[in-house]
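Standup notes
- HV: blocked on the assembly model, inputs below
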Amino acid sequence: MSVYHRPVSNIWWLKRKPYILFMIRELTSVFVAGYCIFLLVLVYKLTQGADAYGNFMVALKLPSSVALHLISLAFVLYHTITWFNLTPKILVLYRGEERIHQGLVAGTFYAVWAVISFMVVWLVLGV
Amino acid sequence: MAETMKLEIFRYRPEKEKEPSFQTYKVPFREDWVVLDAINHIKDEIDGTLSYRWSCQMGVCGSCGIMINNVPKLSCAAFLKDYYPDKIRIEPLTGFPVERDLIFEMDDFMTKLTEIQPYIIRKESEEKPLEEGEYLQSPAELAHYKQYSMCINCMLCYAACPVYALDSTFIGPAAIALGQRYNMDSRDQGRDARQEVIASHDGIWECTFVGECSVVCPKDVDPAAAIQRAKVSSTVDWFKDILIPWGKKK
Amino acid sequence: MAKSNEPIWWSLFSAGGMVAAMVLPVLIVITGILVPFGLAGEDPLNFERIHSAVSQKDSVKLVLFIVITLPFFHWAHRFRFTLVDVGLKSVSTLISVLCYGGAIAGTIILVVIFWNI
């Protein structure tokens, strides 16, 4: 008997909203890596002396730099939110027979995130 | 005049056509009808040639899974009123080869289910003789795997999984979740044997955590979580092997 | 079936994902908003301060190393599977080499930079 194999389109991820959101989540990694390349360049500029580093810092004020930062921020925030919301699915904790509520686990991550963010501001900016 | 609704149904009759097509049927709309009622109505009153699977009509047997507007659903649990008055598009579950109309071939799934050895395995030396009674288990121990034991093998999770649709060598959500169900059972000692399949390339590592398998699951088994947790424990195994090679069992 | 080496990549992916989730948003706010708009005082990231911190303190180097390189591996793993998911499975080996190779290259570059600072 001949069975029919339905072809799978390479744009399957455009066909339903959950799949589109999945693809956006996966593509946040591009912005994650992009920003880390930026950090890599920043550290490199440190080795090139005060002038090169100073010019790089001035360039941060360019509208294109700010725009790129804002776009990256949107994607990286999406990464953070999806990451923290999915982690409690993997980190399954029990108290006796009762599973510890996923919201509590996720909430802990958000709290740690807030603390780390303030620490980074304090350490990096010295304020 | 009674209200009606249109169902656009995937048809494939291998004896007379090479390519599938869609056929539209007009059915009465009733508040209390599920999609399966409408399909049964078509079979009984309109077109007896339509083929599909169903049995219990109460969300337990897992045989009536179909795609409704591209979403895998049990047709006995999807109400017409949630779609009315729009047309409903019905197809066999995605990712599986189609035998006829809404009937798909499930051999691949069955093979995978047996591959993960979904039963309690004891080490030979630790098998109790029958007269010594059952292996006891506390409610807390039961709680650790109970969710994963609720699977009814309806295959909706496979139909929701793009990774399986793209490459059917992937072991897939339900089979891995069932493997986890036994791995996490305090009475079971068969994890090492199952890891051969679960921790292989075609096992958990193909999964990209799309997460739709868990969304469509009618029994809240959460296979996506089962797979990610298996990744964690397999990673722990891997590092143990590297760091303490002499700790290897047998 | 062959024992998989995926755990090494997956654990780097996970660690990198966690680091990225925790520290990248605030860093982007700093270099993209606070610093360019002067909201954090006069030139808080001035050369002397940052250069001495990075060049003199190994703890700063270590933190920077973690913050920069682990997310590279996060990207490598995730992007590799994204490409496979859009139908490029036939060239999956090449994709793996390019993605992880890129992350490894980034790591080596950072080590060289630290060496020369």
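- HV (later): unblocked. The radius of gyration of chain C is 18 Å. The helical segments of chain C are 6-34, 47-56, 58-88, 92-116.
- Next: hand off to the docking folks.
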